[in-house]
């Protein structure tokens, strides 16, 4: 701004008035200053302007696993909705174990993010959430939820969706059903597990691999646990999984050991990632509206940033059951 002022022969204040559109300079002088600024390639610092105004149009998004397609699609929705409101999104990877959650969240705040969206909260993060609330940093919980936390949440009814999915697997005539769930620290995985278990109980069944049901939400975890499962329970005729990546790992092992899907083993996932309906895979799964979930989280957060003080909201989005070839009835 000083360079522009010297070139135009005016004060820095006059340049500020001209660039911001504020009164204080004549229209003729404003246009001359703008022309010189453009000629010199001057670009005002948006962050500096926002800091002077006491607001920063930036939000933070904390992802558990940036390599997981689920989170990248959620991020796409967040970025698109935030851009419509003129907000930038700073994306951070906190790791599947969440050990970096607090450090990353506070670093986002230090970088002047006006609010945060969390995708991997666990009960142990309650002190962090209390600290952010004390500092008046709005928070939205996306998908995972910390009970008794007074902040907005958006997700789906994981319990009902998993109940329907497991009920479908049983309806195909399977009776030796195994469950390969996610981590027991995740509210989402806990709800899915409860739905799977209750559906089996209603059918007079129990998971044949009880109580060894929990694990990571990765393809490698699915493969590792599937090998152990088939070694101990070769009679397994259906596997319901905590997400599509786990199911993909199971499918890898089935091909290795000669188990046919769905003839020998019915297989279900959860999330309906893009690869789930690709080519010959055709995985039966639950469609989660990831992009919409991200959009809603961003809009909820921006509403809080801009002064919405209404009570915390819980927004349930619709899901759908996708029945594909991996749960076809036996011939």
Keywords:
331 residues; alpha/beta; 434 Repressor (Amino-terminal Domain); Rossmann fold; 3 domains; 6-stranded parallel sheet; 3-stranded parallel sheet; 12 helices; elongated
Topology:
Blueprint: H1 2-8, H2 12-20, H3 27-39, H4 46-53, E1 58-63, H5 69-84, E2 88-93, H6 101-110, E3 116-118, H7 126-134, E4 139-142, E5 152-155, H8 158-171, E6 177-180, H9 187-202, H10 219-232, E7 238-241, H11 244-257, E8 266-268, E9 285-287, H12 290-305, E10 314-316, E11 320-322
Parallel strand pairs: 1-2, 1-3, 3-4, 4-5, 5-10, 6-7, 7-8
Antiparallel strand pairs: 9-11
Short summary of the structure?
The chain has 331 residues and is of the alpha/beta class. The chain has helices at 2-8, 12-20, 27-39, 46-53, 69-84, 101-110, 126-134, 158-171, 187-202, 219-232, 244-257, 290-305; strands at 58-63, 88-93, 116-118, 139-142, 152-155, 177-180, 238-241, 266-268, 285-287, 314-316, 320-322.
């Amino acid at each position: 701004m000083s360079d522009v002022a010297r070139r135009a022969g005016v004060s820095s204040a006059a340049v500020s008035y001209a660039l911001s559109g504020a009164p204080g300079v004549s229209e003729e002088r404003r246009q001359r200053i703008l022309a010189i600024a453009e000629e010199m390639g001057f670009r005002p610092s948006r962050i500096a302007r926002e800091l002077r105004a006491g607001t920063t149009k930036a939000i933070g998004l904390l992802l558990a696993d940036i390599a997981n397609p689920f989170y990248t699609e959620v991020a796409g929705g967040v970025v698109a909705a935030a851009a419509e409101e003129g907000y930038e999104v700073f994306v951070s990877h906190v790791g599947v174990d969440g050990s970096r959650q607090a450090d990353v969240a506070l670093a986002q705040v230090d970088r002047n993010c006006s609010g945060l969206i969390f995708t991997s909260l666990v009960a142990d993060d309650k002190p962090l959430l209390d600290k952010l609330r004390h500092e008046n940093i709005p928070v939205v919980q996306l998908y995972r939820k910390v009970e008794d936390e007074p902040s907005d949440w958006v997700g789906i009814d994981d319990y009902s969706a998993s109940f329907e999915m497991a009920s479908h697997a049983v309806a195909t005539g399977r009776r030796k059903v195994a469950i390969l769930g996610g981590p027991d620290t995740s509210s989402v995985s806990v709800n899915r597990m409860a739905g799977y278990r209750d559906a089996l109980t209603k059918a007079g069944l129990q998971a044949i691999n009880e109580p060894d049901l929990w694990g990571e939400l990765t393809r490698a975890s699915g493969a590792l646990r599937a090998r152990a499962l088939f070694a101990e329970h070769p009679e397994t005729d259906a596997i319901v999984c905590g997400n599509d990546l786990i199911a993909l790992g199971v499918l890898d092992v089935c091909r290795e050991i000669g188990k046919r899907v769905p003839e020998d083993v019915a297989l279900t996932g959860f999330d309906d990632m893009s690869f789930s309906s690709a080519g010959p895979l055709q995985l039966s799964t639950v469609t989660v509206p990831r992009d919409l979930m991200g959009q809603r989280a961003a809009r909820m957060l921006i509403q809080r940033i801009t002064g919405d003080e209404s009570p915390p909201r819980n927004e349930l989005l619709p899901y759908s059951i996708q029945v594909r070839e991996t749960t076809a009835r036996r011939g």
